[in-house]
């Protein structure tokens, strides 16, 4: 499987026009994996896939560059197969738990395909079914976590917080330290989106401690929570302290052969805001090159990164280069389908980034 880009709400939050300490708009992609579900059985007409590949098999790069059409077509085909599987399961009088896992999978695949309404409907159905099954606490917690992240991106913060807290309670009842830490990580991201930086920092640090000690932790776990911590620190006007967790995350991504342009860009950003213009410029330039190659100049994350990079270039008096970047931004914005980007009630916060 091709290494996925670790793009999440966190990154677009930092890349907003806000200075450290100012209010931030919501970001873009969710970046939430089905890391801990027991999994639904794959329909008989498609191969079995592990839980790790159910969510994240299609990278954001696939959805934005030349692979996007075929990738989305594959996702839609998989959704159709799972919907057929639901019909068959209902005819066979499948249990609520079995049906709930199928709806959960469709919800996640719909999110991957950027079908937000469809994702929300299926996740809500999964929650309803799994809530009736005493043995499905783990899957219910996963559903609530995914739904909470979706509602966070939609700026439905109260709903998101209720869902994430309920997921945490279920995982605490299961006494599973790894799953609890994943809820802490999700809550840290939510509090960051709400500009509650102290809470975000506290939950991120707790998650990092458990992830460091738990053998079941994934690279995704370790990298994303360090991004959250770094962003929370920098937006609390302590960008110098944000360097270490971001460096750790970027180094781990590269050690695992993950081309993570946004991580490099974030690291450059905090170097810049800490006064180190040399390292700031080096990392931001490297990050921009990867983002533009993998996501394309017109991708929302690339655009907000480009705006910050142009500001950096102007600050260091490389005006000609800044004008080139700004021209590319204008050209990309002229051809971008705003309706497709903002398809879900401003869920990615682009209106606030203009």
TrEMBL record:
InterPro entries the record matches: TPR-like_helical_dom_sf, TPR_rpt
Keywords: Signal
Gene3D superfamilies the UniProt entry points to: Tetratricopeptide repeat domain (1.25.40.10)
Domain of life the protein comes from: Bacteria
Database matches in SUPFAM superfamilies: TPR-like
Region of interest called Disordered, as start-end residue ranges on this chain: 24-68
Signal peptide: 1-21
Protein name per Swiss-Prot or TrEMBL: Tetratricopeptide repeat protein
């Amino acid at each position: 499987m091709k290494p996925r880009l670790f793009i999440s709400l966190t990154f677009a939050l930092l890349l907003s026009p806000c200075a450290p300490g100012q209010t931030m708009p919501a970001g873009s992609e969710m970046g939430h994996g089905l890391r801990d579900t027991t999994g639904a059985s794959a329909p008989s007409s498609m191969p079995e896939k592990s839980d790790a590949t159910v969510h994240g098999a299609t990278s954001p790069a696939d959805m934005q560059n030349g692979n996007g059409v075929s990738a989305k077509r594959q996702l839609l085909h998989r959704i159709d197969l799972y919907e057929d599987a639901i019909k068959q399961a209902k005819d066979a009088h499948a249990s609520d738990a079995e049906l709930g896992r199928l709806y959960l999978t469709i919800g996640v695949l719909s999110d991957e395909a950027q079908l937000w309404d469809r994702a929300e409907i299926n996740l809500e159905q999964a929650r309803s079914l799994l809530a009736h099954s005493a043995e499905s606490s783990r899957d219910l917690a996963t559903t609530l976590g995914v739904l909470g992240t979706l509602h966070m991106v939609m700026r439905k913060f109260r709903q998101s917080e209720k869902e994430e807290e309920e997921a945490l309670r279920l995982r605490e009842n299961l006494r599973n330290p790894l799953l609890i830490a994943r809820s802490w990580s999700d809550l840290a991201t939510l509090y960051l989106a709400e500009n509650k930086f102290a809470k975000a920092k506290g939950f991120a640090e707790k998650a990092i401690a458990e992830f460091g000690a738990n053998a079941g932790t994934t690279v995704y776990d370790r990298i994303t929570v360090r991004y959250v911590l770094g962003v929370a620190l920098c937006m609390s006007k302590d960008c110098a302290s944000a360097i270490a967790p971001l460096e750790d995350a970027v180094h781990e991504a590269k050690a695992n052969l993950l081309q993570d342009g946004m991580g490099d860009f974030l690291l450059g950003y905090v170097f810049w805001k800490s006064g180190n213009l040399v390292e700031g410029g080096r990392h931001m330039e490297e990050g921009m090159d990867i983002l533009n190659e993998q996501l394309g100049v017109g991708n929302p994350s690339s655009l907000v990164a480009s705006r910050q990079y142009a500001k950096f270039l102007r600050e260091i008096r490389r005006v000609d280069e800044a004008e080139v970047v700004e021209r590319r931004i204008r050209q990309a914005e002229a051809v971008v389908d705003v309706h497709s980007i903002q398809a879900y009630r401003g869920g990615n916060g682009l209106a606030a980034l203009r």
